[in-house]
Amino acid sequence: DLSACESGAEWEKAMQLFSAMSQNEVESDAIACSAVLSACEGGGEWQKAVTIFNSMMQSEMELDTIAFNAAISACKRGGAWELASQLCGAMAKCKVKPHSMAFSTATSACEKGGEWE
Question: Helix (H, G, I), strand (E, B), or coil: what is residue 80?
Answer without folding.
Answer: coil
